[in-house]
């Protein structure tokens, strides 16, 4: 199995591309090469191929990076499955993972939600998407500083609050407060549940 993430930037028309494009590209470059592993197209849409076990973490990381920019957010559809045709461009490759990602991404505007997943298994889809809706209740409300603290935590999971405080030039207590406001503990619990679900899907 692989995971395909299809997304676009919300409110991009109200911002210069230079405000978010560099941030998104810098992160995607850490994940692979363009256009084989990822592409940005039609101005503000993107698609990337990632290991299925990291798909949700990467999606939340992208959300945090984009929400760290004032008045911006991102919409993403995650599809898990196989790849039956691999082109030298991710946008021209095909298979169930691509089809599920595309369909679930298209459903987002109707469902008025910003993140959804399609695994090909109704039970897991229903459970995961309910959990995502509940998590989006606070993730969609992240302030720029909350989003920044989540992005830093996901980028360097082993980094201590003291090290983050030094990097941001703030007190350690402020880092702790920001992580609590961002509900980082629940983000980690959600990622643990997703990892367990992927193991069950593989078995």
CA-CA gap between termini: 12 Å
Radius of gyration: 17 Å
Total beta strand runs = 5
The percent of residues in helical segments reads: 40-55%
Instruction: Give the count of helical stretches.
Output: 8
Instruction: Assign the structural class, choosing from mainly alpha, mainly beta, alpha/beta, alpha+beta, or little secondary structure.
Output: alpha+beta
Low-confidence stretches are none
Q: What is the average of the pLDDT values?
A: 96
Task: Give a nutshell description of this structure.
Helix content is 55%, strand content 16%. With 203 residues, it is α+β, with helices and mostly antiparallel strands. The relative contact order is 0.14.
Description:
Helix content is 55%, strand content 16%. It has 203 residues and is an alpha+beta fold. The termini are close together. It has eight helices and five strands, in the order E-H-E-E-H-E-H-E-H-H-H-H-H. The chain has a five-stranded mixed β-sheet, sandwiched between helices. It is globular and about 50 Å long. Helix 4 runs antiparallel to helix 8 (184-202).
Write the layout of secondary structure elements.
Layout: E1 2-10, H1 17-31, E2 38-41, E3 45-50, H2 55-67, E4 73-81, H3 96-111, E5 115-118, H4 122-139, H5 144-155, H6 161-168, H7 172-181, H8 184-202
Parallel strand pairs: 4-5
Antiparallel strand pairs: 1-3, 1-4, 2-3
Name some characteristics of this structure.
alpha+beta, five-stranded mixed β-sheet, single chain, globular, 8 helices
């Amino acid at each position: 199995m692989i995971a395909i993430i299809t997304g676009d930037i919300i409110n991009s028309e109200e911002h210069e591309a230079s405000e978010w494009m560099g941030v998104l590209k810098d992160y995607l470059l850490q994940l692979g090469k363009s256009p084989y592993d990822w592409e940005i197209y039609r101005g503000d849409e993107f698609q990337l191929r990632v290991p299925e076990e990291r798909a949700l973490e990467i999606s939340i990381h992208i959300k945090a990076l984009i929400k760290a920019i004032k008045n911006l957010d991102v919409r993403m559809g995650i599809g898990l499955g196989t790849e039956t045709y691999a082109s030298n461009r991710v946008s021209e490759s095909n298979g169930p993972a691509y089809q599920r990602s595309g369909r679930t991404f298209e459903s987002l505007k109707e469902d008025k939600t910003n993140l959804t997943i399609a695994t090909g298994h109704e039970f897991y889809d229903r459970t995961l998407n309910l959990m995502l809706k509940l998590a989006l209740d606070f993730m969609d409300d992240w302030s720029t500083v909350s989003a920044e603290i989540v992005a830093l935590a996901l980028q360097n999971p082993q980094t201590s609050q003291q090290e983050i405080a030094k990097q941001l030039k703030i007190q350690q207590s402020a880092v702790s407060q920001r992580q609590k406001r961002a509900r980082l503990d629940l983000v980690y619990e959600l990622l643990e549940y997703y990892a367990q679900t992927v193991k069950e899907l593989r078995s």
